[in-house]
Amino acid sequence: MGSDVENDISREIFSYSQRFDIQTGLLNHQAFQDELAATLRNRATGSEIALLWIDLVNLRREFSLWGWAGAEALARRVAETLRSVVEAGALLGRIGGRSFLVAIEVSKRDKQAGLRLQNVVDALASVRSRGLETRPQVAAGVAFYPVDTESPEDLFRFASLAAHRASYVKTKAVVAFDPGMNTLVQRDHSLEVEMRKGLDQNQFSLVYQPKIDLASGDVLGAEALIRWKHPQLGNVTPGEFIPVAERSDLIHRIFDIGLHEALEQMQRWRMAGIELPAIAVNASAANVRSDDFARSVGTIMGQLPIGSTELELEMTESLAFEDEELFTSRMRQLKAIGVRIAIDDFGTRYTGFNVLKHLPLDTMKIDQCFIRGIDRSPGMRSLCQTIVAMARQLNLQTVAEGIEEQGELDVMREIGCDGGQGYLFQRPVPADAFEEFLRNWPRRKLEFGFPKGRIGVEHEPVCTFAETVTRVIQPVACL
Ligand code: C2E
Ligand code: MG
Ligand code: MG
Fold first, then answer.
1. What is the CA radius of gyration of the chain?
2. CA distances, 292 to each of 96, 175, 444 (Å)
C-alpha cells in the first residue's frame, strides 16, 4: 500500500463499512444491536422503547427488474425518508438487505403510540424510485421494551415475528407483537427435541466444498458443512438448526460429531490415496467459549491422525469482539496443538483490523456480501482490494466466499485474493461426489481460465488513496 495517510483513509473507509450499511448510511446489524443494547441500558426509568421492524417486501422483485442499482436506489430512498420522519435520537438500521429498523422511545400504553409508528411506515408510501414505477411495499411489526420482553435479543425476534405476520396477512398496518405469535419459540423447543433424537439416530452428515487457489487453480482444501435430514421435516438447513443448537448444549455435540466425521473422512481418503492439503470445520462462539475446547479438539485429533493434512477451524468474529481476551487465549491454545484458525464471514461484524492484528490467525474468509456482483461495483472492488491488502500486511491468507460467477472470480484473482470458494466451482456435496469433483477438477479448472501449471496471475496494484475515495462506493448488501 502507499503512504500512511492512504492507509489511514483506507482503514477509515473500511471501519465505516463495518458499522454502517454503505448504500444507505444506516447502522448495520451488529452496530444497531450494540447501539440498541446501550439505549436500553441507559434509558430513563419507566420509559419504553419501541422496536419497529420494516421489511421491504418488493426489494427482491426490484432486483430482478432493475438489477442491484434499482434495488439499492429504492433502499436509499427508503432510508432518506425514514431519516426525515423519525425524531432526533431514534436509532435507524438496515439488516439482511431488506429489513429496516427504527428504535424510538414510545410507550405501548400511549394512545398515540400506534399512530406515531404508523405515520413512519405510511411516509414510505410516498417514496418513488425510477420515476413513478416503483413504490416500496412494506410489512411492519413492532415490539416494546420492556413490556413485551426484557431481553434485547427477544425484542428483535418479536419485532421480526410481528413484521412476518404483517407480510403474511398482507396488511399495511403496523402489527404489534403478541405472545401468541411466539410459535418460533415453540418451534425452537421442538427442533431441539428433534435434534437430540436426530443426533442419537445419525440423521446428521457432512458435505464438503472445495477451496481453490485463485492463482494456480489448485485445490487448497475443503470446508466440511453439516447437514440434517429429518425423517418427517426433510432437510433442515444449518441456518435453522445451528442457532437453536447454540442456545442449548447441543452445539457441543454438533461440533464434536462434525470434527470427528471430517477427520475420519480425511483418514479414509488418505487410505484411498487421496490427499487434501487441508480440511476446515466450523466452530460456533459457544464452542470456543467452553473451557475445555482446545483439549477436546486435541483429543479428537489424537484419535484420528490425518497425516500432513492441516486442520483449520472457522469461526466468526463475534467472540473476538465480545471477549478479545478469551478469544486470544483460546486461539493460542489451538495454535499450540497445530490447528489453523480462520475468521469466517469477515466484514459482517465490526471487529476491525486493530483487534485482528493481535490475534494469531491464519486465514480471513471475506463474506459473500462483498463478493456478490463485485464485477459490477467499482466501490466494492476498491473495498475488497483494501481488505486483501490489509490482510496481507497481517500475513493472513484471504479466501473469497460464495463465488457464483466468472466475473466475480476474475475480479478476486485480479486483486490478489489467495483463495476462493463457491457454487461456481462446486456446491457442497457428500464425500463420494467430492471425490468425483477432485478427479475432474484438473480438467475442469481450465474452463475457468486457470493455468495448466502452477503459474500465478499478475495482481493489480492496490488502488491509490485518490481512487479509493473518489470511486463511488457502491457495494451490494445481501438481499
Ligand atoms: P459458512 O461457514 O460461512 O459456510 C458457507 C455457506 O455458504 C454454506 O451454507 C455454503 O453452502 C454456502 N455457500 C457456498 N458457496 C456459495 C455460493 O456460491 N453462493 C451461496 N449463496 N452460498 C454459498 P450452509 O452449508 O447452509 O451453512 C450456513 C452456515 O451454517 C455456515 O456458514 C456456518 O456458519 C454454519 N454451519 C454449517 N455447518 C456447521 C457446523 O458443522 N458447525 C457450525 N457451528 N456451524 C455450521
Ligand atoms: Mg465456514
Ligand atoms: Mg462464511
1. 23
2. 34, 45, 43
Long-range contacts of 7-11 (CB under 8 A, 24+ apart): 9/465, 9/468, 9/469, 10/386, 10/389, 10/390, 10/465, 10/468, 11/353, 11/390
The model's pLDDT over 305-330, given as tens digits with 9 standing for 90+, comes to: 887 779 999 998 777 766 778 888 89
226 lines ligand 1 (CB under 6 A): yes
Query: Which superfamily, per CATH, for 2-177?
Result: Reverse transcriptase/Diguanylate cyclase domain (3.30.70.270)
Closest-lying ligand to the alpha carbon of 225?
1
For residue 456, report the distance from its CA to the centre of ligand 2, in Å. Answer: 26
Q: Does residue 353 contact residue 387 with C-beta atoms inside 8 Å?
A: no
Ranking 182-196, 283-297, 408-422 by mean pLDDT, the lowest is 182-196
- H/E segment holding residue 120: helix 113-123
Domain range list for the chain: 2-177, 190-468
- HEC profile of 250-276: HHHHHHHHHHHHHHHHHHHHHHCCCCC
Nearest CA to ligand 1 atom 23: 402
Q: Which residues surround ligand 2, an ion (CB under 5 A)?
A: 282, 314, 344
Residue 170: pLDDT band with limits 50, 70, 90: confident
What is the SS3 assignment for 359-372? CCCCEEEECHHHHC
Instruction: Tell me, in angstroms, the distance from the centre of ligand 3 to residue 369's CA.
Output: 10
Q: What is the mean pLDDT of residues 132-149?
A: 83
Least confident of 136-140, 367-371, 462-466: 462-466
91 near 156, Cβ under 8 Å? no
3-state DSSP call for residue 82? helix
> How far apart, in whole angstroms, are the C-alpha atoms of residue 372 and residue 356?
24
CATH architecture for the domain at 190-468: Alpha-Beta Barrel (3.20)
- Maximum average pLDDT range among 108-122, 316-330, 447-461: 108-122
Q: What is the pLDDT of residue 193?
A: 93
- Could you give the percent of the chain with pLDDT greater than 70? 86
Pocket mutation for ligand 1, best pick of 211, 227, 242 (most atoms within 8 Å of C-beta): 242
- Please, what is the angle between helix 293-303 and helix 250-271, to 10°? 30
- Distance between CA 289 and CA 296 in Å, rounded? 13
Q: What is the mean pLDDT of the chain?
A: 85
Find the 8 Cα to ligand 1 centroid distance in Å. 33
Q: Is 447 exposed, middle or buried (0-12, 13-18, 19+ CB in 10 A)?
A: exposed
Strand-strand pairing, 204-213 and 219-230? antiparallel
- Indicate whether residue 371 lines ligand 1 (CB < 6 A): no
Q: For 218-232, give the secondary structure using H, E and C.
A: CEEEEEEEEEEEECC
Model confidence pLDDT, tens digit, residues 141-151: 999 999 999 99
